[in-house]
UniProtKB/TrEMBL annotation:
This is Alpha/beta fold hydrolase. Keywords: Hydrolase. Residues 22-269 form the AB hydrolase-1 domain. One of its GO terms (molecular function) is hydrolase activity. Signal peptide: none annotated. It holds the Pfam family Abhydrolase_1. PANTHER family: AB HYDROLASE-1 DOMAIN-CONTAINING PROTEIN, HYDROLASE, ALPHA/BETA FOLD FAMILY PROTEIN. It comes from the Bacteria. InterPro entries: AB_hydrolase (IPR050471), AB_hydrolase_1 (IPR000073), AB_hydrolase_fold (IPR029058).
């Protein structure tokens, strides 16, 4: 896959569809690689008349890692006594750097989970570069909404097994906790997904620094009131990683946004829901 020089680092990316079509840039979540936007999903979106771009955020997958910054002091960051290695605004700047590298004056942006937070930050920091905003299974940074359940939190904070096989099996078990109860995946599918992620570029240390960026970036609610972009906010009613209240708060904060609550959807993008998710994205782009 190609790599772009963006904001002083390298971002691994991939594209689908006609390069002359309007661009849509997909931003993935905490510790997640761009392949979490599955090829079939990207192809479906491209079939609606878009040039689709997915990429690895900094500290994830095959983009630049920041291991020289070390492990963040998460407790200190929560308490406000320690700095984060970087902020969500830096990830937003990375995305704009990718726009520049690919020659996009403006683009539609779709973010999932932490990627939704980055997309929101883009809308705040770089509104002139966005055509529309879609925020999926995300939240505003207000700690009173979008809370993680204890079971889901354990998937983020548990100890990491030593062997490849043990780590893959743990990922499968974690997917079971956070996935969509209304659209359960097979063990074969989850194991294939976990194996591909592990072998391609799993990077727990980078996920910790991304988590620090989420915590240190604070509440975006007031700044989201100023967003004047066509916006769709999509959230599952069964999300245990970011409670549906986070999606509701996001939609309430962004003027004239559309809120879509999906029954049975958890913190993933199950294939049976791809047509509904793509339709929501297209509605945002149609308003641009």
């Amino acid at each position: 896959m190609p790599r772009a020089q963006a904001n002083g680092l390298e971002l691994e990316y991939d594209t689908f569809g006609d390069p002359a079509a309007p661009p849509i840039v997909l931003v993935m979540g905490l510790g997640a690689q761009m392949i979490t936007w599955e090829e079939g999903f990207c192809e479906l979106l491209a079939s609606r008349g878009f040039h689709v771009v997915r990429f690895d955020n900094r500290d994830a997958g095959l983009s630049t890692w920041f291991d020289e910054l070390g492990a963040p002091d998460l407790a200190g960051i929560v308490a406000g006594t320690a700095p984060a290695p970087y902020l969500l605004s830096d990830l937003a700047d990375d995305t704009v750097g990718l726009f520049d590298a690919l020659g996009f004056a403006k683009a539609h942006v779709v973010g999932a989970s932490m990627g939704g937070m980055v997309a929101q930050q883009l809308a705040i920091d770089h509104p002139d570069r966005l055509l529309s905003l879609t925020s999926i299974m995300s939240t505003t940074g207000d700690r009173s909404v979008g809370q993680v359940s204890p079971a889901a939190l354990a998937t983020l904070t548990g100890s990491v097994p030593e062997t490849r096989e043990e780590q893959i099996e743990l990922s499968v078990a974690n997917y079971r906790v956070t996935g969509s109860p209304g659209y359960p995946a097979t063990d074969e599918y989850l194991r294939r997904k976990a194996t591909r992620n592990y072998d391609r570029g799993r990077h727990p240390a980078g996920m910790q620094r991304q988590a620090a960026a989420v915590v240190a970036s604070g509440d975006r609610t007031e700044r989201l009131h100023s967003v004047r972009l066509p916006t769709v906010v999509l959230h599952g009613d069964s999300d245990v990683m970011i409670d549906v209240s986070g999606g509701k708060a996001t939609a309430a904060a962004i003027p004239d946004s559309e809120l879509v609550i999906v029954p049975g959807m958890g913190h993933d993008l199950p294939e049976p829901l791809w047509p509904e998710i793509v339709a929501a994205i297209v509605r945002a782009t149609a308003r641009a």
